[in-house]
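In response to reviewer comment 3 from the previous cycle, which asked for concrete evidence that the modeling workflow produces usable outputs, we include below a single protein chain processed end to end. The sequence was submitted unchanged, and the resulting structure tokens are shown without manual editing.
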Amino acid sequence: MFTSPSAEPLAHSGIRLTFLAALCLSLSACLGSDDDAGALLPDGSTAQLAILETTDLHANLLSYDYFKLAEDKSLGFERTATLIKQARTAFPNNLLIDNGDTIQGTALADYQALVTPVACNQKLATYKAMDTIGFDAGTLGNHEFNYGLPYLAQVTGAKFNVDGMAAVASQPTCTGPAFPLVLANVTSKKDGQTLYKPYTLISKKVTGKDKDGKAIESTVKVAVIGFAPPPILNWDKRWLDGKVDVQGVVEAAQKYVPLARADGADIVIAASHGGWDTSTYTPTMENANYHLAKVAGIDGILMGHSHSEFPNATCTTAACGAEGVDKIKGSFFGVPAVMPSYWGKAIGVINYSLVVKNGKWTIDTGKTEVSVRKTLLDATAKTYVEVDPAIGNAVKTEHEAAITYVKTPIGQSDFALSSYFADVGDVTAIQVVNAAQADYVAKYVSANLPQYKDLPVLSVSAPFKSGFAGGTDFTDVAKGPIAINNAADLYLYPNTVYAVKVTGAGIKTWLEKAAERFNRIDPTLTTAQALVSSFPGYNFDMFTSADISYEIDVTQAIGSRIKNLMYKGAPINATAEFIIATNNYRATSGTAFGLTAANTIYASPDANRDVLIDYIKARNNLTLAADGSARSWRFTKVATAGPVTFTSSSDKLAVAQAAGLANISLVSNDNGTGKGLGVYAIDLSK
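The workflow returned the following structure tokens.
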């Protein structure tokens, strides 16, 4: 390979520039990159470049469950790090990019943000772990905004020119990650500028071969552009309202992809924290990556947010069969796309074959390979890749502090609180959450909102852990002492309490939406029917109060399932007004539940989890009779010709029986997925 005889930039050496320009013309190939100003590369030269992705780590740094205070080998960045090292060996030319939802999600994250806040000159534990293995770039997801803009600026080493924060010149320079964070579609209302650089341009040194097979070195310029889901304006309204604007993913890409190309990018990677939705595009779309693939100039899409995997050859949804989707190769309209699960369970890989054409690196699209590499080695044996000990060593102090914190006792319970059978009526893990929310809102209304003092206060909550990730993904608080980690298990998210005013008709609309948790059951079918749909468990809002009762008729169509809705023993008055205690997520993004901004009468700054902790401290002793048996809803009785089934954790029938669910039976302790789930049947006639 020809090299410049001097380290002096060619732009400042006219003689050398003229000489090398002549050589470029004679060979018809010159990279034209500032970093390769003296490097000549003939057409036909080839190289490989792999883009490695992590996403939705949610501060799961170690294979540890802070709720259960036990090891959980199925998750943790300390195992992801091993996958990364293996991939770096397999693909010597590589870049590692994180796709967001990185700094929130565990008790460790909450401890550093809310309990003993990390200092300006300290690096967040998550970034300490990530910097141990080394990332090239990252973007932000929706959960990065959960703790507010000042905290986000501090821990990422940024300075935001937004209302409510000191002037940029007065903001301290704090310690952030060692890699750049980029975000193209979130801008300050104050100056219209993006909070972070919209993209970064990485000059990546690669090894390859010329057309004759001789080893070469060169530089490939890779632009990484970041995108967050636009609904963050609703989800974290309390932090973002009036301070930032969010642009549509497609619109932001149409602005910045050409600029990245003009900056010399050979490859443009979209790190887009969202999934993919094949419905008609709107600028507020949460999962816009299917449409992002249509933006000219994008060479690859890193996805996340949906906590699933792509490519996925076994996918049977309509979206997987949509026009332009290749679920096997992993692409939308020919653009490689990957989504590697969540909580550090996998990494995504887009491996490009590069070839020089007309002096520029181009992608040999026919040879691009997309894959998901998992920490799980054998589902049957439940074996995983080994941990990288460097990660645990890096965050040992923070990990131990978090464990000490979550062990703090706050009360006692004479019953177990679990969500194993919340889908079929067990309220042991939900009633205390509802009671805490209702108590908090009622006291606030009485003291501060006299105009609403005569309205009844009710509360809704949902089974936040309902088996999505397998048999261990359920709330399970044992009888006996209750500690802070148990409260975190009961209320998984760092939401804040909101109070909304709705009518009796509004309550019915709300419950009809929640009832989409269930499939429609045909009583005449003799074959087994699955009771539970793909509607998320965290959206299955329910009341747990003696004052309200209702039935869910799963034989009816969506929107017509709520029957016999009663308040204090009488049919609910459609025009009567009620106050419902809920959370900021539901209140600000619950249009499908019939809620708009006009319904909110109080947006509390206090976290639901903290309200729950304070309530348990005040109650001190929880009893099944008072705190775990007020079931407001039932299934409408119907006899079915065949079995109606659902899944829960294996070998938990005794839990259902203890909750008084005598119509539940065990079909099998293994549903065949290798995820620790069993199959149960429910007799809807009882």
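The CA atoms of residues 278 and 319 lie 6 Å apart. We consider this sufficient to address the reviewer's concern, and the full set will be provided in the supplementary archive.
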